[in-house]
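User: Can you recover a sequence for this backbone? Please restate the input before giving your answer.

Assistant: Of course. Working from this structure:
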């Protein structure tokens, strides 16, 4: 199965204040494998709040059930000061150690969380380039690449600011994790992908509903975006790009308890839909 499953979809505490996982990822691996998935993009807190010994156990369990961990999704902050800046350095170094243990060769990152590129000062951008650059080079020396996500609240907000950062720092030859800013307009989503043609290494797939339709998540086949057009358009120009199901139907539980089995069933439907599209390319 080509679709990677994002473990953020399986975590009900993903948006709580301290983002402490309700469930230990190692305990979820058998159910994930039964649902048909053999690759995971790990949400940062599923590993950053665990010891190295726990991560070694996770790797061993993955080997046992036939699971690999090609991505860790990371949310680095590069503009903090004082104690918070030192904490960020420790978190970022720790992620590289855990990526090595897990056999993860690429991080999916949101570049400078909390800093909108369009509002950043020159000093802030220089600080981002310096701190990110140090981390990026250390990762690269250990065989770990980085894919930077197109996302609000980062240097790529708006996308033009991210493009300027790329042009100013060609030495930071990261790839792009593509996702639309506008999930309602397929033509606009295709045009956004064309701006990074040849540099997209990864895609995040999801189908957020408009607020007037519930504001939850639909199956990909029911998305306002036409993934039957969008995926072939992107993959023809970026044929080696990988794909993660980031959010899926039932990953938000409004009126009932969070049910991992329901989330996994929805994820499998999305994965089967993606496979059907790939067969047509």
């Amino acid at each position: 199965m080509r679709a990677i499953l994002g473990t953020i979809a399986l975590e009900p505490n993903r948006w709580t204040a301290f983002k402490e996982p309700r469930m230990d990822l190692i305990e979820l691996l058998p159910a994930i494998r039964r649902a048909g998935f053999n690759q995971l993009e790990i949400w940062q807190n599923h590993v950053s709040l665990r010891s190295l010994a726990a991560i070694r156990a996770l790797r061993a369990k993955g080997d046992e059930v036939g699971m690999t961990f090609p991505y860790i999704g990371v949310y680095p902050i590069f503009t903090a000061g004082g104690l918070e800046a030192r904490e960020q350095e420790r978190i970022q170094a720790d992620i590289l150690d855990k990526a090595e243990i897990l056999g993860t060769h690429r991080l999916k990152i949101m570049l400078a969380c909390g800093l909108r590129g369009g509002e950043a000062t020159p000093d802030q951008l220089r600080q981002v380039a310096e701190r990110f650059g140090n981390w990026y080079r250390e990762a690269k020396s250990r065989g770990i690449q980085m894919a930077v996500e197109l996302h609000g609240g980062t240097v790529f907000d708006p996308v033009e600011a991210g493009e300027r950062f790329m042009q100013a720092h060609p030495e930071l030859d990261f790839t792009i994790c593509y996702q639309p800013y506008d999930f309602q307009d397929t033509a606009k989503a295709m045009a956004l992908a064309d701006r990074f043609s040849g540099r997209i290494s990864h895609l995040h797939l999801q189908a957020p509903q408009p607020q007037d339709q519930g504001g939850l998540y639909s199956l990909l086949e029911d998305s306002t975006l036409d993934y039957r057009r969008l995926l072939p358009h992107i993959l023809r120009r970026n044929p080696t790009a990988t794909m993660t199901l980031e959010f899926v139907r039932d990953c938000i539980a409004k009126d009932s308890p969070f049910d991992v089995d329901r989330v996994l069933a929805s994820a499998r439907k999305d994965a089967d839909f993606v496979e059907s599209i790939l067969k047509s390319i």
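That completes the design. Residues 190 and 230 are 6 Å apart (CA to CA).
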